[in-house]
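Hi team, as promised in this morning's meeting, here are the two structures we talked about. I've kept the exact order from the run log so nobody has to guess. The first one is mostly here for context; it's the second one we should focus on when we meet again. Sequence first, then the predicted structure tokens.
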Amino acid sequence: MSTSHSQSSFKEIPSMQRAYSAGVDDLMDSNVESDVLYPHYGSQAGKTAFTKSPTIDAFAKMKRKMSNGSRLSRQRRLSGDHNCDTFLPETVRYHIYSSEKNGETVRQQQLLSTDGQHGLETILKTTGWWIDGQSPTDEEMQVLAKLFRIHPLTVEAILAREPMEKIELFPNYTFVSVRSFGTEDPIRPYNFYNLIFKDGLLTFYFQPSPHPSRVRHRLDQIKHHMLIGPDWIHYCLMDAIVDAFCPMVHQIEMESLAIDELSLVLHNSERSDMLQRISGCRKHASQISRLLVTKVEVMNSLMKRYEEKWQRAGGYALKTLNEVLLHLSDIQDHLTTMTQNMNHYNRILSRAHTNYLAQVNVGLSMTYRTTNKVMNRLSFLGTICIPITFIASLWGMNVKVPGKGILSTSWFYWVLVGMFSYCMILIFLGKKWRVL
């Protein structure tokens, strides 16, 4: 859709507000049809897929009629998840960005407000707009679904915060769901839900993220030198999400190499610490690998979709799509490289874990060997002492022993000599047999 056509289409906004009030009344109904949000796509070719902006008074009336607060999605009502997100009044959750040279970013705390309506009406008159929404409420999603003709499956996926990464094609937009992660420990992944329209981009997520602000800063630097469309904005967002994996991959690389070097030179006191390091690094590596593998599949599907558009495009659109394809292929190569590196680091950690277990087994074997030696010596000493103890105990019993009636001590000394000779012979045999 061109800019001139978009501007002429939105000149009728005041006259279309009454017509859109009927759509607001549909949102206030509590029947099944209102909950499902049946889509109505534009029937004429070349017409914009957006409806005109509704009046804020109608929204306020709708919210007052909702006695139970925000309307929960059907899936969340059935699952019993009634924990609605709460926001501080000063939190800026919506950034309405314009890629025009003199365009500015409109920051809004609430979308269902007079300023929010004015920002939407202003931005939708242009091309290359970007609406960035953090933690949208159910009412806001219903309004946006009516405004942009979003399919109910897409609305349900966003409100349910589905974690699966995927790409889905609809008549008036492309839905792309990708996962990023926070910097906390443990890693907490969260999704970006991107809706690529002909003239703009919608983005939703449910955790604070630095990626949108970085993308806006990047776009501000290049929008004076080139024409930016929704495909380019989406590429910049995907590039920021993928680049966020680089520090984590580098950290895992350094940790895995250090573990591999230290796994064979550990002292006994350091083995427990090494096991914790191996377990923690393998856990992070598995989480990052799982996030990267799914992105490769999404990127392949996205590039296939752009290749199909490139075959049908012409003129400046052909050049733009060609540039987007080149940059997406760079992201794809980056993802492939990181995935291969993570597989290599997983193998290093697996080998280090195997070496650690081998060291533990060697240590246990040496302990068993030492214990066996000690037990053999004790058994041999017992073999020496038991006969001597038996002979010596005969003189302490009320029994008849040889030489008892003889007053001479010759018997006593001969017995001592015999016991000493017995001990020396057994000790000699023990040394010879390497028992002692």
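And here is the second protein, the one for discussion:
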Amino acid sequence: TSHSLLQARFQPELVRCCRVAVWRGETGAELRRFGNVSESYYKTSQLYRRPHHSYHLYRHYFLTLYCQWPPVLRNSNPTMSNKEEKPEESQSNWKDFIYNPRSGEFIGRTASSWALIFLFYLVFYGFLAGMFSLTMWVMLQTLDDYTPKYRDRVSNPGLVIRPKSMDIMFNRTDPAKYREYVKHLDSFLQQYNDSVQEENELCDEGKYFDQDAEPVKKVCPFKRSLLRQCSGLSDETFGYSEGRPCILVKMNRIIGLKPRGEPYINCTAKRQDALQILYFPNEAKFDKMYFPYYGKKAHPNYVQPLVAVKLLLTKEDYNQEIAVECKVEGSDLRNNDERDKFLGRVNFRVKVME
């Protein structure tokens, strides 16, 4: 009778738990699996096991047990229930992290917190940008638009040649072998065309062309026709078709350079027999009127003076490599620095085949 009343008045989960606790005669120690049961409930459970007690005593015990440990009695299998709720809880936690409608947080921060953090970084990076701009402005005030502030590291110019190659090798009977050399020389000499150079200022030979007070610097002309046999005007192949190639030698630009004396180019072959060489202009010198140079911005149309070197090779010189060295001499410009092979000099090799 008591058992039927329990089934009618209590939930199935409660009846199932109570059956384990009472009708199977569980002891107080075994009841610990339902929760932290006090000692008085142990004693009560022993009394309620006896058949002569009334339904009211059972009801009192079951209600007390049900209210004391609701998670245990209301869920007959808590382990399985937790496993089923985990995916739903993780999805809810993820959504709350993105936006929590209860606290109004977005990715863990409220609107005011986000505003403060953005304001902090705005002020911080704004300060860094301002400090960087200020230091750059102070540094730029020390620079000149036309002249470098420090020019003590390069006081002597180097020599370079055109065509731009240290090994000039070709077959004089095959135009395809020397076409690139000829094309490069012709392209380089376009700025020296007589029609272009006639627009420049006529200068006094043998004198420096000082223009310190002039805002716009003038340029002394150097006409392509001065190179004569190596100008490409009378011989479009610059002597390559006949096995007597022309090499153009020039000095690098240095702002404010005024070489003393009369600098000129002297080329020699590194062999026992002397090599016949022609120079154009005939003196092979760099006239003082092309100095000083005032920089690319102040002197935009400036052209460097050139010396053309024509190697008069013979048939005995063909099919062998000839090393040639050209130096600038007749002035205070250095040409014997062992640490810099191009300071005031240049070395190249020529090999003509047939």
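Starting points for discussion:
The chain has three domains: 2-73, 78-108, 159-353.
The CA atoms of residues 203 and 220 lie 6 Å apart.
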